[in-house]
Structures are given as structure tokens and as C-alpha cells.
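Hey all, sorry for the wall of text incoming. These are the two entities for the joint prediction.
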Amino acid sequence: MRILMVEDEGKVAELVARGLRAERYAVDVASDGNAGWAFANTYDYDLIILDLMLPGIDGLELLRRIRKKNEKVPVLILTARDATASKVENFEAGADDYLTKPFAFAELQVRVKALLRRGPLTQNSVVRVGDLEVDRLSQQVRRAGKRVDLTPKEYALLEYLATQPGRVFSRTMIVEHVWDQSFEGLTNIVDVYVRHLREKVDEPFSARLIRTVRGVGYCLSDAAAP
Amino acid sequence: MNPRSIRFRLTIWHACLLTAVFVVLGTLLYIQLGNYLEDTFLDTQSRRAQQIGATLTLRAPNLDPEGIARELTSIYAPEHSNRFIRITRDNGSLLYISGPPNDQSFDPREVPPVEPSPRREFTRKQEMPGGPPLLIAASKVATPGSGSFLVETGVSAAPIETMLSRLLVLLSFGLPVVVLVAAGGGYLLVRRSLRPVDEIANKADIITQHNLSESLPVTHTGDELERLSISLNRMIVRLDDAFQNSKRFVADASHELRTPLTILRGELESLAQEERIPAPERERLGSLLEEAERLSKIVERLFALSRLDAGEARTQWVEFDLADLAAVTVEQMRLLAEDRKISLSCESVEKVHIGGDRARMKQVVVNLLDNAIKYTSEGGAVRLKVSVSGPCAVLEVTDTGVGIHPDDLPHIFGRFYRADKTRSRQPDGAGLGLAIVKSICNAHGGEVEVESAVGRGTRILAKFPLVSRTTGPFRSG
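and here's what came out:
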């Protein structure tokens, strides 16, 4: 998997590239719009991560050019502008997803993975983590063969964590995904729901599956807690 | 009429000054005229006395009283012209005295004899019993052979008194009329020239930080008021600049902080998940990360506020049911309240339609409920009510929490304002939640009110204009 990262802020580019390389992606970094266009025009990428504020060719203009050349490559926008108007503008220009700075790297990882999975890779309807089974078709949860009854919100939360077992999800990501934008800033609601979820999913059993990563968020994993 | 207004005070001063000037002038006129008339009358009389004296000198050797009387009557006819003439000898005996005048204004025989005087000619004002005084001129005449005489001629002062009393009547009736007319005119004039002040004050009342680009009316009269309104307008422009600068600063600063925060968070995040780092250090990194996250939240909220200040709420304007929004939000937050054993209830009337940005309005409900739950202790109650009052939709959140001290009440919607120290320990709060509520409300043409009693609870009311139902059957969920 080859990713192009167009970002003029050297440290951000380095950080993202390092993280993505650790995930065994091949990452090219372009530090301005012109270099970005040169890379995008020369190679075929599986994903392009694009900062909007760029010297040289402006981010949106670059996005339009990329779309003209290649309709399918997923583009993830990084932006410091998060006004609703510019969101709409981004999607109209052909972005597949966007992230507002400052973002959590965990969030970027999830989105990158989601964007790369689009297309041929179909997901199994049943996710298994340890002895936990989440059936996304029937929306049922079993642990060690026993059925666990969850409220719809609890189920939505668990299902979200189960999309990428082992991956840490930030509270903000969870709020945005399970609730909606207006709950922004109310991340304590996540803690309450996670606690309820644990009471039902973890406490009756010996192994803990829902892990807290301090300062980052939660993850669903059967790896032994450190 | 306001007795402290400039109009009123100027008019009163004006009237008082005018009255004083008139009284002084009238008094001087009265006295001067009286004196002048008396002098003129006396002057005439003393000339007559000299003429009579000259006649006596001519007839000096044989002065018979009858001859004198005849001659004086034929020349002066004192009775017809209401005059008084008396000629007295040196020894005090009378040579001649005129008869009673036709108008009976005085009796010549009642005029007392003159006091001896060393001067040859002198005048006096003789008070008469039961009548006007007489103005008398006296002249001493020495005749060859017949000794010397004192000739006195006089005239009644009645015409002078009549004239002066008429003047007095004129002044006492004229003065109030003149003062009234002048004061009324002055009032109108002052009111007219002060009307721009009313206009400026009315306009200045409706200028707030949100419409600083408007200016005060300028009257092109070239007077002090024009200067004042121009100066005020310049001040408004400077204020506007300062406001714009500070808004731009907040927007720019929160924008500029994003990139370093991204780097900070990203690096900390990857370290916090680094398996090679021992758990205690990772814990500390997690703590750092929490602070970085809080910082990000503050930056985001500041940015949201600066966008609201710039009036960006209208981008997603739809019509929606506030009652429905409130009910949905309460359900979503119920667990948060139950977690703290707080009862959360919601009551509302059917369909309260308002216009606005639904997501932002939801943020208002969320922030208000979150605050109420945060500051209510276990076992308390939080109640949300949506109702209609006149042309307004009212969103009301009542809690049985700690309450807000009266000193803090005016400030709780300020940015970064902390009501007390216990509140500041809340890890999540950035001190911007209520500021955002207020900004969103203002952007929707609404307002927020708060009532609170320490120890008993707080009630926050947010009011928004209702959408008139005549605009169409549009409904959005």
C-alpha cells in the first residue's frame, strides 16, 4: 500500500509518515502543492493525505487536479478550517474524508484503514475478539457462548470498537461516531457508557477485553492488559 | 417635563435673567422719568416766577394789590390753568394769592408758608393734604422803593403721577407677557437645537459590539453637536477596529495553535502506546496527553466562538421543532444523569418551531444540561422545559444544584469565567460552555437569562423567536 502525504508542516508530515510506516505502509512526503502534484501525477497511490493550506498549488486546487486524473484514489483532507461551509466545499471537491487539526493520530490511523479497505475488501459480519462475538447483521453480542443484552447505544459503542480490534479509539472519535457533533466536548458521556458496557461485557468474565489507554481512549483487545 | 433636562434648565435661567433685567430697567425708567418730569415742571415754574418778579420790579413804586391781582389774572389766569401763584411781602404778609383752580386739585390757602432760605431762587415739592403734591418754584425779588417780595408759582404734580402710574401698569402687565413669550420661544429654540442629541442618544442605545459598523446621525449644522457626533462616530470606528482586532486575534491564535497541538498530541500519543516504555512512564505520558487534549478543546471552542462572533451560524439555517430536539437530547443524556443518581425530566408543549442551526441549538441543550448535571449533587433533580411565551420559544433548565452566588451571576456567560474554585476542578470544563451557549443564542436572535439561589439551585432560560406558522408547512426533524 502506497500513500502520498502532502503537508507543508514538516513535523506533522514526519509524525504521520513515521506512524504510517510503522504500520508498514510506503509513504511519500511532498512539502508543497507543486511537489504534491508532481508525485500524484507520476505514481499511482492507494491513498492521498492532503493538507489544505499549502504553498504553491492550493490544497483544493490540487484535489481537483487529482480527481481529474484519477477518480478512484481515496483522498483524506487535513484541515485547520472546520467551518461547516468548508466541509461541504471539501466533499464537493471530491474528498472522501477529512480530519480537523489538531487530530489524534489514532483517529488518522482508523480513517486511513477505513479508506484503504473501501472497495474489494468485504468485512465479515461477525467480529471475534477473544471469546466475544459481535454479529453485525443480527446486532447480537455473545461472550463465551452466552448472550449479552445491550442497549442500542451500548451496542453501537461496542460495534464501533470492534471494527478494528486492537486499535485505540479516542473519546472524540467515539462521540462523533456513536453520538453526533453536538456532543463534542461531552466526552465524559463516553466514560459512563464504557463503564456500563464493561459491567455487562467484562465483569462477569475473567478476561478484560475493553481496555483504557490513558490520555488516548479505549480499545477492544484480547491481548493481556499491560 | 424632566426638570433636570438642559432644555428645562436653560429655559428657567433664561426666564429668570430676563425678569431680573426687566425689573431693573423698569425701576430705573420709572425713577428717571419721574425725576425728569418734575425737573421740567419746576423749571417752567421758576421761569414764570422770574417773569412775575420782573413785572413787580417794573411796577415797583406803587404796588396796589388789586392792580397786581388784575394784571396777574389777565396775563396768567392761574385759576383756569390750574396754577398756584402767591406773592408774599418781606414781613410775611400776603400781597397776592391765586384763587382755587378749576379742577379743584388743591386749595391755595392751604399751602403752608415757605421756610426761609438764603438762596434767591429755590424749588420744593409741597405735599398737600388729600391731593397730589404741588411743585412750587420760589423767587425773591427786591423792588426799588417797595421792599422785597417772595414770588411762588406752582403746579399740581397730578399729570406726572398719572403718567408714572400708567407706566407702572404698562410695565407690570408687559413684563410677564414678554418673559413668557421669551421663555416659550427659548424653550422651542433650545429643543430644536438639542433634537440631534435625542437622535444620537436613541441610536447610541442600539449600538452593541455586534453592530459597531453603524454610525450615529450627524447633523450638518456646523455647531458643537455636529462636532460631538463626528467625534463619537470616530470613537465607534476605533472601538470597532479594536473589537475586530481582538476577534481576529482570537481566530488567528486558535488557528495557529492547531498545528503545534497536532504535533504535540501525535508524538505523545505514539509514545503513550509504545510497548517498550515502562507502564509508570506511559501513565505520565497519558497525563500529558490529557492536558494536550484539554488544550485542543479550548482552542476548538475559542475557534467556534470566534466563528459565532463572525456570524457564521446562518450557514445551516433550517426550521425545526425545539421540543423534539430537547426530548431527544434528554434521552441521550439520561445515562449521564442516572450515573450521578440525578433525576432528569423533560416536559414540553407540542411542536415549538424555531429557525436556526439545529446542531448548534442541540449544543445549547447539551451544554445547559451538562452544566446542570455537573453542579447538582447526587439525589438532585434536573428539569428541562420547552414552552411558548408570546412570540418566543422558551427553553428552561432548572436544577437543584449548588446555585450561583449573586456576585457571579452577571459574569457566568463571560469567557473563561469561573464562578468558584470548586467548579474549576472540573477536569472537562474550559470555562467556555456557557459563553458558547450565549453566543449561539445571540446568533439566533435569542437571549439567555439566569436566576439562582445559593444552595437551592439555578434556572437558566433561553428564549428564541418562534417561526411564524404562516411561512409554510415545512417541517424538519
